[in-house]
Amino acid sequence: MTTVKHWYVYMAAAVTVAFLVGFFWDQTPIPPNQIPWNSNTSLEWNDFQGTPPQTTPYSAATGYYLGYKDLVWRQYFVDNVCTFVISSVDVDAYVDRTLSWVKDGSQSSELLSHEQGHADILHVKALVLGKALWALVGMPHQCPDNDPAKVQQEVEDMVNSIYNPIFDSHDRLQDEYDSDTDHGRNPDEQRRWNQRLSDIFMPPPPNPIIPL
């Protein structure tokens, strides 16, 4: 079993209304430094427990992780043909309190709201990743060889072919968010992103059909 991990910390200097929706609750104990992507919990300043870098020009940073876990597969034979199936794989995504920090005197509601936007984007991409990964579960595939090591590599390649582009898309979206909003210092662009994220979590109702 393999878990692919990429750590990223995004900086911000100052606005987003967040509505986190909880899905697919994990029953395993949650480490105290982690805020799961599906926790339905908004960020608070006491979640920012890291130490700010001395040379950074930014006022705060949200550290988070996006990956996958619990990758399990099994190999069997059907009419003497080697077959494998992925029996489980799950999203592993969370905000890391120990990698998140804020400078003293910078704990404004506007800055916290902007940082929440980074957590919301993580949530959105975790949902996308989960949908794509869960579609792999239970689908039979012919083994590249009877060698379990080669099957293991095939499984990992299959999962990573889905994971990697979604992670890259997530990375680009986080960059776009900070660039558009100037790390929260452009209020007009921040409001546009606020609405964009809000509409993802709470889509507006469709326009009613009004008879002529």
Automatic annotation (TrEMBL):
Skewed-composition ranges (Pro residues): 202-212
Domain of life: Archaea
Segments of this protein annotated with the region Disordered: 173-212
Keyword Transmembrane helix: yes
Segments traversing the membrane: 7-25
Keyword flag Transmembrane helix: yes
Keywords assigned by UniProt, alphabetized: Membrane, Transmembrane, Transmembrane helix
Basic and acidic residues: bias regions: 173-192
Name the record gives this protein: DUF922 domain-containing protein
